Amino acid sequence: MSKWAKRIYASLIFLFLYAPIIVLIVFSFNAGKYSGNWEGFSFRWYQELVDNSSIMKALYYTLTVAFASSIIATIIGTFAAFGIHHMRPVKKTIMLNVNNIPVLNPDIVTGVALMTLFGFVKMKFGVSTMLIAHITFNIPYVILSVLPKLKQLPQDALEAAMDLGATPWYAFRKVIFPEILPGIVTGCLIAFTLSVDDFVISFFTTGNGVTNLSIAIFSMARRGIKPVINALSTIMFGTVLGLLLIVNRRTGDLSELDV
Amino acid sequence: MLRRFSALPYVIWSGLFIIIPLLLVAGYSITSKDLETGAVMFSLENFQKFLDPLYLKVLWRSVKLAGEATIICLLLGYPMAMILAKMPAKTQRIAALLFVLPMWMNFLLRTYAWMYILGKTGIVNKLLMALNLPTVNFLYNEGAVLLGMVYNFLPFMVLPIYTVLTKIDPSVVEAAEDLGANAITVFKRIIVPLSVPGIISGITMVFMPAVSTFVISALLGGGQFMLVGNLVEQQFLLVNNWHFGSAISMILMVLILISMAVLNRYDTSETTGSGVSMI
Amino acid sequence: MKKFASLLLIFVFVASMLAGCAGGGEDQVTLNVYNWGDYIDESILEDFEAETGIRVNYEMFATNEDMYVKIKQGGTKYDIAFPSDYMIEKMQNEDMLHKIDMSKVPNYSLIMDEFKGLDFDPNEEFSVPYMWGTVGILYNKSLVTDPVDSWDILWDEKYKGNILMMDSQRDTLMVALKKLGYSMNTRNVDELEEAKQLLIDQKPLVLAYVGDNAKDMMMSEEAAMAVVWSGEAIQVMTEMDGFEYAYPKEGTNLWFDSIVIPKTSEHVEEAHMFIDFLNREDIAFRNADYIGYSSPNTGAVEQISDELKAMSAAYPDMSKLDNAEVFLDPGSFIEEFNRVWTELKAQ
């Protein structure tokens, strides 16, 4: 494929992905309250954001649970993928199907079922219940991201390393792990994304004043989502973009050694 | 040793938080509550209820839409994954992250933004009017729902395929070319088969959630379609019939797991040992 | 890479610890308040905490049904909630509500008499009205040339593709039932079937069945008319000119969001204090001013701007509400409503 065809195609796809984001960012500067009505340029929503403690609290919980659940899910999921990969066919099929269940179930079913479970054991609803729920729906995506990379490896890579004298753990660390790392990173990324954006499951598994950004936004829908949210989203977007550029610049030199 | 116990934490976790809730749902599905007395008893009436043509139509529509969305994601996503995999390492990482970044903005907000872009008086139509072209009704039809699904799930298709493509050994490709294969043959016979595990993961992560989604059809579809996701939500919340809602979920689950099993027959990478170099 | 990973792990642990400790100050009484999103002036909560020393944990829900499931499930001991009319009746039927001792809520006297003893709480024992409104037709004056005074206009071919209906079972079925002259709380399957057929006939004319973004769509002229709650109409009309809100002559739905004390409450005394506080003249006014919907509190209404008082969408002439009905809990009949709705959607 010609270079230009590739460039155009990639640009179109990115444009498709970012079109709504651009709209969101533009409207964060809308002087008016409703997105049906552009009333001029204004910073008022950014100022309001600073005062709005309940949204800040929601943001705090969102990020905390997202970071914690995606990291824990990645750790459990990576080891699980490794284990599942080496299981005998019957056990493997069972585990893979069990793994699929949170992915295929409508959110409401997962949310309500977990809520019932937590209620049954009389757990106090809050960060811990929400965290458990998030980890539960994140792990399958980690496994689904890591498994293909494991399948790409030669069957006996681990044995070969151990024949040469490595302990199983050393072999895993130095041989398997670097190869499946892209899958792990992808899995972690997807997990984080799902966690940040989850509403239904979070709603039914939280309580006692713990909320998250999605719950705050969805519950605002009846009254109209205030552009304060747009302002927050824009700041989040800008921050992540900025961090990305910085990190990439700093580690850029090392990556040249790759391939 | 490592192999045997690696998955143990997850086995325990899934037992607690996937199996037990699943048993709860299954339990609800095979019981029903007599509305007068409140007594709960075994009954398969929930499953029978679903066999009504009304509900089967809803199910079929959902599966069809999800299938179409998955195919579109695959067709659009595979080339994108290839492009990503061929980028210089530094750009690759940024590009992959940029791909996922939009999904960190709240889903409801992004969907509302699409409505603003595609509405009758939205950005695209305003552009068309400025160019003296006729306006198009983009929203409130199946096409809009499809667009919403593709928009939402495309990254889930691209990323697993991309991670697999990054490690396809170029020397295998070279060897094929030396033996006289042209680009198309190389693609068909070497690259695609080697990327099958990624494709399957991608399909899994798109098709399954797509079948049970409901917000997209409510907003972009203008509330005109009832999909299985809407139906389940309705049963659990509005009608408060957790029994019927659970039965629908069980049926959905079985159907999807069967189709996934069929799909996994195409994954022959186990037996070939993949033949890809490692270091 | 390794350092980064370990730093991240440390962050995760620390954050989880902090999150766990978020519920500090165990001695302080804390009220768990459960409300719709953006449905209170949050500075009022701060003032309440300052005046009484009672902390407020504020959580939000998106629909009555979501709220019902969470309260019934019991994981959080909610002290105050703001359900709508039919949901209050349902919760009462399931014994989920605490009786409110009106003697502990002296400011209840400020509630308008017309709104005391409503159908869903005839003995004024379980709820105190918070906000109220109606359902009507919001229309764009420049796009709608005919007079709008009846539900019929929503079936007018002239406005094909310019009509927005609500993506809400009860509300849309209500429109059809009222148009046919039936009660919106009917338990008659034949009447329901007639209503269904009417709606199926209407479907080709409807642009979309919308949830909450009717406001945005009307303001960007996606449609000429929409069935909306009066609160939404008020929001649109205060933002932009050129709109009007009509009360169809066949009658409509009169809705209430009221304050209740769920039985799960462990601080019933303090809950009463909170309700009384919300109904204090100055507080009720601040709240009504912020939310912009119609307040049932006379003390608040007195201080409302003349502009808003004159808006018939907000404070109509009570005679307009003669044919209005309040939603009642349909009980098991909801299955019929549901079936009809599913059939409509599956067309």
Question: What does this molecule look like?
Answer:
The complex is a heterotrimer of chains A (259), B (279) and C (347). Chain A is mainly α. Helix content of chain A is 78%, strand content 0%. The longest helix of chain A has 33 residues. Chain B has a single domain, classed as MetI-like (MetI-like fold). Chain B is built from 14 helices and two strands. A two-stranded antiparallel sheet of chain B has the order 1-2. In chain B, strand 1 and strand 2 form a beta hairpin. In chain B, helix 4 crosses helix 10, helix 8 crosses helix 10 and helix 12 runs antiparallel to helix 13. In chain C, strands 4, 5, 6, 7, 8 and 9 form a six-stranded mixed β-sheet that branches. In chain C, strands 2-1-3 form a three-stranded parallel β-sheet. In chain C, helix 2 links the parallel strand 1 and strand 2. The radius of gyration of chain C is 22 Å and the shape is globular. Chains in contact: A-B, A-C, B-C.
Q: What is the count of structural domains of chain B? A: 1
As for the number of domains of chain C, it is: 2
Structure annotation, total helices of chain C: 13
Any guess at the CATH architecture of chain B? Orthogonal Bundle
* Helix percent band of chain C: 25-40%
Main sheet overview of chain B: 2 strands, antiparallel
Oligomer, anyone? heterotrimer
The dominant shape of chain B is globular
CATH topology term of the largest domain in chain C: D-Maltodextrin-Binding Protein, domain 2
Mean pLDDT of chain C: 90
Going by helix content, strand content and strand pairing, the class of chain B is: mainly alpha
User: What's the arrangement of strands in the largest beta sheet of chain B?
Assistant: 1-2
Integer-rounded radius of gyration of chain B: 23 Å
Key features of this structure:
heterotrimer, A: 259 residues, mainly alpha, MetI-like fold, 2 domains, globular, C: 347 residues, alpha/beta, D-Maltodextrin-Binding Protein, domain 2, six-stranded mixed sheet, 9 strands
Give the SSE layout:
The complex is a heterotrimer of chains A (about 260), B (about 280) and C (about 350).
Chain A: H1 3-27, H2 44-51, H3 53-85, H4 89-104, H5 107-120, H6 127-152, H7 157-163, H8 168-197, H9 200-205, H10 213-220, H11 227-255
Chain B: H1 2-6, H2 8-29, E1 31-33, E2 40-42, H3 45-50, H4 53-86, H5 89-100, H6 107-118, H7 123-130, H8 142-165, H9 170-178, H10 183-211, H11 215-219, H12 228-238, H13 242-264, H14 269-272
Antiparallel strand pairs in B: 1-2
Helix pairs in contact in B: 2-13, 4-8, 4-10, 8-10, 9-10, 12-13
Chain C: H1 2-20, E1 30-36, H2 42-52, E2 55-61, H3 64-73, E3 80-81, H4 85-93, E4 128-140, E5 163-166, H5 169-179, H6 189-202, E6 206-210, H7 214-219, E7 225-229, H8 230-239, E8 243-246, E9 254-259, H9 268-278, H10 281-291, H11 298-303, H12 306-310, H13 334-345
Parallel strand pairs in C: 1-2, 1-3, 5-6, 5-7
Antiparallel strand pairs in C: 4-7, 4-8, 4-9
